[in-house]
Amino acid sequence: MLQALMVEDDPDITTLLVNYLKNYGIALNAVSTPSAGLNLLDTDHFDLIILDLTLPQMDGLELCKMIRQKTDIPILISSARSDINDKVIGLEYGADDYLPKPYEPRELIARIKSVLRRYRPTLEKKNKLFLLNENEQSILFNGSPLSLTRAEYELLSLFILHPNQTLSRDFLSNNAEAISWESSARTIDVIISRLRQKVEKDPKNPCFIHSIRGSGYRFSG
Q1: Cβ of 53: how many Cβ atoms within 10 Å?
Q2: Among the CATH numbers 1.20.81.30, 3.40.50.2300, 3.40.50.150, 3.20.20.70, which is that of 2-119?
Q3: pTM, to two decimals
Q4: Which tens digits make up the pLDDT trace of 122-147?
Q5: Region 130-219: CATH code
C-alpha cells in the first residue's frame, strides 16, 4: 500500500480523504501543522506528500521549499488559494502539481497517479513467469509479450503488483482507469475471464488468477 503524508488543518477534508484513499491502496497519514509533518518525514517513509498552503506556524509555500531541500518525494499542493503567483512559486519551490480546491476526490486520485508515474519511469516488476514494465505499459508472460486491451493490462498489472493478496472487485475497478466508475462487478468478471483465456493453460481450473468466493480475486504468479 502506498504511504502518503498530508499536511492539512481542515479535519473534515482529512477525515474524508483518509477513508476515500484507502479504497485506492493509499494509506494517508494526516497532520495539521508543518512541524508535525517535518517530524514525520524524519522518521517515516512516504511515497507522496499532499500539502495545503494556508497553515498554522508557517506558509505552505515555505514548507514546500523546506521539504524539497530534505527529500525528492513527490509533492502535490492542494489549496484554495487561486493566485497564479502561488501556483508559480509552488512549482518553482519543487512541487510537482497544484490542485485547486474545491475538487472531486476522484481528481485527486488522477493527479496522484500522474505524479507517481513521472517518478517511476522505468519501474519493472518481475513475478516468476510475468514481467511488468510500467514505462512501456507491457507485460511479458513466459518471455513473450501479451496482447492486452487497456483494461486487461491494468487489471493484470494490479495483480502482479499485489501478489498473493485478495483484491476486491471494488479495489480493481477503483484502480483501473480504463474501467468506468459505474462498472458493475460483472464487468470485472468478464475481463478476468478474458485474461484467463490468455494466461491460463486451463481457464476453468486457473493456476494464476483465483476466484475467492465473496471477496474477489487472488493472483499467484
Answers
A1: 24
A2: 3.40.50.2300
A3: 0.63
A4: 445 556 689 988 878 899 999 899 99
A5: 1.10.10.10
